[in-house]
Specification:
The protein contains 9 helices and 10 strands. It has 290 residues and is an alpha/beta fold. The protein has a 10-stranded mixed beta sheet, with helices on both faces. The protein is globular and about 60 Å long.
Length: 290
């Protein structure tokens, strides 16, 4: 298996590199360190200077070689083979294009953005675009982590099977414990809206029917995930049923990694509300499964 690590020179991206190397060392995987020279974005029309594009491109090219060199050094620390690639263009499309063209890439890893406003806007947009459109799981973190406790989040029976299969395989390879948290879909917001509309006829019946439907969805999702893990001979250490999506971050506890589905509109690069919330929080490390 190959893991592509998108590097931009930030501490967060190098922490993602270290975390990926830790995974690679335990799964006999290889690392592709991928840097994108985005000098093409600085056009004369945008900057007002005819020569600045070439100057920035040269500086970013030189910086890219430094980034890749550091990636090699990190790989050596973990005893993990690393290849370095420098590409030109806009980061998200370049990363996606490379992954699509190389079927051996099974995981994309990248860092959360820094808290700096300028960097955050650009890198976070890149991360969200890749999470929304990638055909392979995407690992996003801002910390160097050693994964020993994994939590998978499920809210849909069919998606739960894929998430459980990926999460179970990864946890087993890493020797990590595995827990399940099942959360109500974003449709729970509908119930909250019902409660705010006093003039809706038979409002209590609407709420009761909706809550019953959500409980059934959650039960099916949990059962589907457990069934998949049972076939893999993986024991689940904990099961937490029916929390609100907004509570997932607070429910992480001692878990190092959260694995959940994207459930957006890939063609429109849209993510679910919970996926957006987790990417915006910068608080936890997560793998988004498509």
């Amino acid at each position: 298996m190959k893991i592509l690590v998108a590097l931009d020179g930030s501490d967060a991206s190098f922490n993602a590199m270290r975390s990926s190397c830790s995974i690679a060392a335990k799964t006999n995987s290889y690392i592709t360190a991928f840097y994108v020279n985005k000098g093409t974005e600085y056009s004369p029309e945008e900057t007002g200077w005819t020569s600045i594009k070439e100057r920035i491109a040269r500086e970013l090219e030189s910086f890219g070689h430094e980034v890749i060199h550091k990636a090699y050094q990190i790989g050596k620390e973990f005893g993990v083979p690393v290849e370095g690639i420098i590409s030109d263009g806009i980061p998200a499309p370049e990363i996606t294009k490379y992954v699509d063209a190389h079927g051996i890439i099974k995981l994309v890893a990248m860092g959360h953005s820094s808290k700096g406003r300028g960097a955050q806007e650009f890198i976070e947009s890149t991360a969200k675009n890749i999470v929304a459109t990638s055909k392979v799981p995407v690992f996003v973190t801002s910390a160097e982590i050693n994964i020993s406790n994994v939590l998978i989040a499920v809210d849909d029976a069919e998606a739960s099977k894929k998430i459980a299969g990926f999460g179970g395989s990864l946890a087993k390879s890493l020797g990590a414990s595995l827990g399940i948290i099942s959360f109500v879909p974003d449709s729970e917001a509908i119930i909250d809206e019902y409660r705010l509309i006093a003039e809706v006829p038979n409002i209590e019946k609407h709420i009761e029917a909706s809550e019953k439907n959500l409980a059934e969805i959650i039960e099916r999702a949990t059962t589907a995930a457990i069934d998949v893990l049972n076939t893999m001979d993986i024991k689940v250490s904990s099961v937490v049923k029916k929390v609100k999506s907004d509570e997932i971050i607070s429910e992480m506890g001692d878990h190092d990694l959260l694995i959940l589905g994207v459930k957006g509109v890939p063609s429109q690069k849209k993510l679910s509300r919970i996926a957006n919330k987790i990417l915006n929080s910068h608080e936890i490390s997560a793998i988004f499964v498509q």
